[in-house]
Structures are given as structure tokens and as C-alpha cells.
Amino acid sequence: MEKRITYSEDVRADNTETTFVLARERLKGSAIKKLVLASTTGATAERAVQFFHDEGVKLIVIPHQFDFKRAVNLFPQDLAGKLREMGHEVHFATMLFHTDGFYNSTRAALMADLLRCFSQGVKVCFEIVVMATDGGLVASGEQVIAIAGTGRGSDTALVMQAASSQHLKRLRVNEILCKPLNLLNLDEV
After folding, report:
1. What distance separates the 2 farthest-apart alpha carbons in the chain?
2. What is the mean pLDDT of residues 70-78?
3. How far apart are CA 129 and CA 146, in angstroms?
4. Would you give the distance in Å from CA 90 to the centre of its chain?
5. pTM of whole model > 0.85?
6. What are phi and psi of 7, to 5 degrees?
7. How far is residue 118's CA from residue 133's CA, in Å, rounded to a whole number?
8. Contact 57/159 with Cβ under 8 angstroms?
9. For residue 55, how many other CB atoms are within 10 A of its CB?
10. pLDDT tens-digit profile of 119-142?
11. 3-state SS of 41-88?
12. Eight-class DSSP state of 97
């Protein structure tokens, strides 16, 4: 079997269109019925609703948890209500890879750093699929497309089989549709 992976060279908000196109192509003829999508401010969620409105998929939108880095959540509550009225889900939950020190464990930061070796978007895809499964919005073992990014917009799409935080060993990446090249900046060394 041969599959294609698309790589973006730069981290840019306009990678979102390419990411969405690749996800839509993968949806055609598949049994996948849910897209798990990271959206901090709601802008990516609004674009996704417009882009995928004829695809017969449910969006599971995962914003930042409340009280993450700022007192006010950037995802508008009126947009959350609107998305729910349209039959989609918006799930505010604990961001699992930001729980370092929880129960005196450093595993969360270690896992996050390891996944960032692939890209920030890959790390977020893992996180949001687990969060959606923990919240009962995706069934364990269900195949979904996870979409996330680095900074603004989306640059990463993975076909994944979901698992909860209680069964992380069951979480699977079936396909990488796209991701940034994630080249090391020498200033980071």
C-alpha cells in the first residue's frame, strides 16, 4: 500500500486550507464520521464548519481548557452554543499534556516533549483525541481525523483510532495526512 504525506515548509495560518482539503479527500469513501479539531479562538472552528458543511461529518471542537494561561477563555461561548445547535460538539477539558506535577508525575511533560519531536500539531492531535474520548464524544477504537496546528491555524492532520487516558496504549495513528517539516531552528539548540 502506498499513501501520500504532505509536508508544509513554514508554519503559517494559511496552511489550514491545505490541511482541510487533505482531510476532505481522505473522508471520501471512508467510514470516518468525526473530525476532532483544535481551535483556541474559534476561528479554525468557524472555517471548518463552512469547509466541511456538506461532508456529513460531526466536528468535535477542543478549545483550551478554562484558566489556561489567561483568566478569560479565548473561545467565544456564543460560538460554542452555535456549534452545538448545528449538531457539533465543543469540549472544554483538562489538557492532558499540561498536567506536569499532577499526582507528582512528570510523565505528561515527557510525553508532550517526545510528541513535539514530530511537531506541535502531532502533539495536539494526540491530546485532543484523548480528551474527546475521555469526554465520551468519541468511542475508544473509533477512527477519526484529528486536525491541529502550530500557533495559528491547522497544519497537521492524522487519521487516528481513539483511546482514553486510561488506555493510552490503545491510541493509534493510522495515517499521517500532513504535518510541518518541523526543522530544528539553530537558535533552539
Report:
1. 48
2. 78
3. 7
4. 13
5. yes
6. -115, 135
7. 22
8. no
9. 15
10. 989 999 999 999 999 999 999 999
11. CCHHHHHHHHHCCCCCCEEEEECCCCCCCCCCCCCCHHHHHHHHHCCC
12. G
Name the grid cell of 14: 494559511
**Strand pairing class (156-161; 143-148):** antiparallel
pLDDT above 60 for 105: no
Ordered domains of the chain (ranges, CATH)? 6-64+74-181 (3.40.1380.20)
Q: Residue 118 is placed in which grid cell? A: 514530530
Secondary structure of residue 43 in the 3-state scheme: helix
Give the cell for residue 76.
Answer: 467565544
Whole-number Å distance between alpha carbons of 62 and 39 = 6
Q: CA 51 from chain center: how many Å? A: 16
Task: List CB contacts of 175: < 8 A, sequence separation 6 or more.
Answer: 3, 26, 158, 159
The predicted-structure confidence for 54-64, as pLDDT tens digits, reads as follows 999 999 999 97
Q: Which residues of 87-98 are buried (b: 16+ CB within 10 A; e: fewer)?
A: ebbbbbbebbbe
Cα end-to-end distance, the chain, whole Å: 37
Q: Quick one: DSSP state of residue 96?
A: G
Phi, psi of 172 (to 5 degrees): -135, 140
Q: What is the identity of the amino acid at 112?
A: A
